[in-house]
Amino acid sequence: MSTANPSTAQPGALAGIRVVDLSRVLGGPYCGQILGDHGADVLKIEPPQGDDTRAWGPPFEDVQGRQVASYYMGLNRNKRGTQLDLSTEEGRAILWTLLQGADVLIENFKTGTMERWGLDYDTLAERFPGLVYCRVSGFGADGPLGGLAGYDAAVQAMTGIMSVNGETGGDSLRVGLPIVDMVTGLNAALGVLLALQERHTSGRGQFVEASLFDSGLSLLHPHAANWFASGKEPRRTGNAHPNIYPYDAFPTGTDAVFLAVGNDRQFRLLCQHLGAADLADDALYATAGARSVNRAALREQLIALLASQDGPALAEALMAIGVPAAPVLSVSAALKHPHTAHRQMVVQVGDAYTGVASPIKLSRTPASYRLAPPVHPADPPAP
Predict the structure, then answer these.
(1) Which of 40, 47, 121, 344 could join 133 via S-S bond, C-beta 3.0 to 4.6 A?
(2) Which CATH number does the domain housing residue 135 bear?
(3) Per-residue pLDDT for 6 more than 70?
């Protein structure tokens, strides 16, 4: 575990960038957290009732005498906090003051809300021409679904993700984490950085939008590419990859392992290690294409060879010889893994916060962890 010391934190790559984060729940707050991890000064502005995710539990954490859901804690570090009622003229007047000198605004209100409040991009850009205005939305503002609210699981269903997730012959399943929301947050952060980079040339900000629908469609590789090429409807393949094999989970004599064999050399090394070198010369399995076509028979062959193996030991041995493999770990085991500690991927800020660290590694301006999530948002400043 990496323990943060805010007093010794280095300025990040975004030091000097000021962000006003009006967003709630996941995609927008995750974007703000990414920017904050890398040095931006992020002010999270919540409505008087607070971000919805403060109540999304259990589990709850007892922080400074208040019960706060772990869901909220995982998305809002490196932010200062305050609260405003933007439905009132007073609240909006304070926001106008806070936007002076701000570089980025993040919001994910239902489309039309900011316009109704006179806080749309065109209006703000007249007074703050350098402002990068980032909107996280469900479907964008127009089109057949324009303006509708979007939620991760519903968008997984609508964009085809659920149709390819699940066991062969089984029902469609939601991916077991909010992958669309999180990728939308990543896309939003990327869009903000692109706009800030372009601002060096033009001196002007711009409108940035990342929608859940677009982000969900962007995740369809290789299924979309396969459909464009073949016209065949992608199907569920369980843990197996639709294009290459063996790229699947396999039982062993102990715990299951995942084999991620991507080329002929890796397959030959696997067969040699299992004492079945002749399998790599069999015309049914000698090439990537042949292995994919004949995957059912190959799976049976491998299950027989793996039946006497210790799963974790096998995965370690295969990795050592260049065959991608892994034990199937629980969340707790993954977070306690020695390599997780080596990569400093669990961070602690004081006694109040423990979370997953930034995966973005910069040599000179690394991420820093200066602030635990704002448990008690401060009263708003006077307008």
Answers:
(1) 121
(2) 3.40.50.10540
(3) no
**Alpha-carbon gap, residue 353 to 361, rounded angstroms:** 21
Shared domain check, 351 and 293: no
Strands 325-327 and 257-260: antiparallel
Instruction: Count the neighbouring beta carbons within 10 Å of the beta carbon of residue 218.
Output: 14
Please indicate, yes or no, if residue 382 is contained in any of the structural domains: no
Amino acid, res. 322:
G
Amino acid identity of 140?
Answer: G
What is the CATH number for 265?
3.30.1540.10
CB 353 within 8 A of CB 343: no
230 domain-assigned: no
Neighbours of 47 (CB within 10 A): 16
CA distances from 375 to 80, 103, 128 (A): 10, 25, 30
DSSP 8-state secondary structure symbol assigned to residue 232: P
List all residues 6 or more positions away from 154 whose beta carbon is below 8 Å from its beta carbon.
none
* pLDDT > 60? residue 383: no
pTM, two decimal places: 0.92
Residues known to be catalytic: 181
Amino acid at 102: A
Residue by residue, DSSP assigns 257-274 as EEEE--SHHHHHHHHHHT
Q: What is the mean predicted confidence (pLDDT) over 121-144? A: 97
Structure tokens at 307: 């039946």
**Higher pLDDT, residue 5 or 251:** 251
CA angle in degrees (0–180, nearest 5) for 230-234-236: 155
Q: Are residues 109 and 151 in the same domain?
A: yes
Q: Residue 64's pLDDT is what? A: 80
Helix (H), strand (E) at residue 92: helix 89-98
What φ, ψ does residue 130 adopt, rounded to 5°? -90, 0
Nearest by Cα to 145 from 214, 92, 220, 194? 214
Q: Which residues span the domain enclosing 55?
A: 2-219+344-356
pLDDT single digits (tens) 115-132: 999 999 999 999 999 999
- Measured in whole angstroms, how far is the alpha carbon of residue 193 from the centre of its chain? 17
Q: Is the pLDDT of residue 134 over 90?
A: yes
